[in-house]
Write the structure tokens for this entry.
Amino acid sequence: MGYNANPVDAYRQTRVKTASQGQIIVMLYDEALRQIDLATRGLESGTRQLDRIHNAICKTQDIFTELMTSLDFENGGQVSENLFNLYMYFNNQLMEANVKKDVSYLQQLRPLVQSLRDAWEEAAKNTGDAESGNGPRQGLNISG
């Protein structure tokens, strides 16, 4: 039961289990970007496999919903509120892209998501929360 036949899955599980909060947030953003790219390619190619596009968009929505639920409004204040509103906007754009099968919503969304991802990565590095383990291990407050 504990044996995993797929070494790639085993690596991913270990990576998540040993990641810091900041690294997990960056991983979530990376996956959101991957799913946005998958849906964008599908819509641009005119594929008839609309279920794949739908699933990629839904996975992205799930990621932003997870990020919303992780916000700590008590300690995060205005930053948490701003992130919450941004994640709501992202989910709304994703819903429109999914319903209308319109790639322009995804194309507008991607640079915003990339910017936030890069900001979280920088924050993780600046707090000693980077993968290399260099610097003080102060941790990263995901309250916002």
About this structure: Helices lie at 7-18, 21-45, 50-69, 73-100, 103-126. Residues 130-140 have pLDDT under 50 and may be disordered. The chain has one domain: 19-126. The chain is about 75% helix and 0% strand.
